[in-house]
């Protein structure tokens, strides 16, 4: 007979929402298990920059930036454009602050505010120049013991010289002129050298963790301290729904787990038909959940069939940088329990323009590249269509809007000149001063199909099949804006966010450098993404809703498997991790209210 056990909370997925929810459950005294389908833990969150966007957070004073509930409210109202119910936005603002406060007070999950990281729509009311993104403090992976080996590696673009990580401000400073950034780099290299012994232990992997790696490592370390297991290679086949699924097993099961919370007392009275009572694994093992099941399985960015069905075209699963395990499983599992998919919102992603270099394990997002001087985007007719330095999510939207109008913007092209090439990276290719064309790996070298290069703009246009006259006209107009410092077409370089990644050596506008020094380069750009952001409808506390809008008892969800509190927007750095963690936190608290049995150790 297949094995059966019971815990209080079953969490599906070990990403941001999963581990934050599991930690809240552990803090409340629940017996909790995290089930992860893949052979590594951390989800996309482990690849992320780890910023967590919390408006009006208690730490903003440390960096001298004032915020208020009113400003947070005004900003979210403006960016979400009526797509998100007011009570949900309110739940996010309050809940995010409570989540951060609880973790900071009771665990080793710690953050610092990032002073210079403007909201992405700085022109909207209530926007702030920084402080809302919270960055996890660095963490020593050695402290995780063997679990460090199964932490999902960071996104390759986060490794300096393909070797070590830096903090957000340190990495950004590398683009700046002057001696200070270089000193930071030297310090990083020196400290990296000092870690050679611990690297040997991890087969060359550096245990100094920042960004999303630090966030997930801190969450996992705290769960470890509290005895919460994260089971890898564990795929859920179906949810157990209804009284019959749970009968006969709860008493023994609760004895077997030795749960101390008393959550089991409630099981008998709440296992009405339709209640989600647990999960069945692909192995046949059943795990009953006395308080609830939290679905935190990420989006469906890696499911090409779903993308074709629900999203704007053209689209390909290969354009995402999201986790390979994010194939929409949670959506399908929850549907079996009566949830309905929010198909009106499922075209949305956390977009970013991206390139898809051949032979790379992932697409590369152009979060930084798109904003730097001496380059711009054109459609396949050779025309500009967007403020390239703007909010990267909005660029994804603009690409599809332009595609709908002209049929020419997906894919588009990034065009840049030799000064860009020398100073700045493009996807996996490092700045030419570090990696000249002849040192670029052959598959990525100019002339081999991905990176295009020509001595004149006309030849470049011909090589990539766009009208040379249109490209010449677009470049001439853009260069005029670069000389005057004002982009009269799209306003590039006019907001704080536009200037976040720019080059202060370029005047009069650090975001606008003319494209004029041969040779010229081009690379194809697609609307890539960090993940999808809609699916399950949830209430303000992460309860999954059925077709009639009523909560499905026992079923909770958070993160990219749910329809986002951000609607179609991306408010600032950390705008995806913050809601994922917040609604997971709130969902577990809702379980304790719903079951009525949590014995909080934290209050
Ligand atoms: C390169 C990069 C940079 C980013 N930077 C930022 C940033 O700085 N700030 C920010 O806010 N966001 C950032 N993001 C986005 C952010 O990482 C995601 O939006 C966030 O991680 C989503 O959290 P989640 O818990 O929903 O999913 P994930 O973190 O992706 O976790 C989902 C997990 O569920 C697992 N899973 C899937 N199906 C099953 C199943 N059936 N059973 C069990 N487990 C399953 C997956 O394998 C995965 O491990 C970035 C993303 C990337 C890729």
Can you describe this structure?
- The protein has helices at residues 16-27, 69-80, 86-106, 168-173, 179-194, 196-201, 211-225, 243-246, 250-257, 267-270, 304-310, 329-336, 392-406, 418-423, 457-464, 468-484, 496-500, 577-595, and strands spanning 4-12, 32-35, 52-53, 111-113, 133-136, 139-140, 208-209, 230-231, 236-241, 276-281, 286-295, 349-355, 364-365, 375-378, 412-417, 452-454, 520-532, 543-545, 551-557.
- By secondary structure, it is of the alpha+beta class.
- Strands 1, 2, 8, 9, 10, 11, 18 and 19 form an eight-stranded mixed beta sheet that branches. Strands 12, 13, 14, 15, 16 and 17 form a six-stranded antiparallel beta sheet that branches. Strands 3-5-4 form a three-stranded antiparallel beta sheet.
- The radius of gyration is 24 Å and the shape is globular.
- The model is unreliable at 248-271 and 597-603 (pLDDT under 50).
- Bound molecules: flavin-adenine dinucleotide.
- Residues 12-18, 35-38, 43-45, 47-51, 155, 235-236, 296-298, 321-323, 325-326, 329, 350, 530-531, 559-560, 573-577, 580 line the site of flavin-adenine dinucleotide.
Descriptive keywords:
603 residues, alpha+beta, 8-stranded mixed sheet, 31% helix, globular, disordered C terminus, binds flavin-adenine dinucleotide
**Tally of DSSP helical segments:** 18
Q: Which shape, going by the Cα principal axes?
A: globular
Q: Strand pairing plus helix content: what structural class?
A: alpha+beta
The major β-sheet equals: 8 strands, mixed
Radius of gyration: 24 Å
Which cofactors or ions or other ligands sit in this model?
flavin-adenine dinucleotide
Percent of residues in helices: 25-40%
Quaternary: single chain
| Mean pLDDT over all positions | 94
**End-to-end distance, in Å?**
41 Å
Strand % is 15-25%
Low-confidence stretches: 248-271, 597-603
Q: How many runs of DSSP E, i.e. beta strands?
A: 19
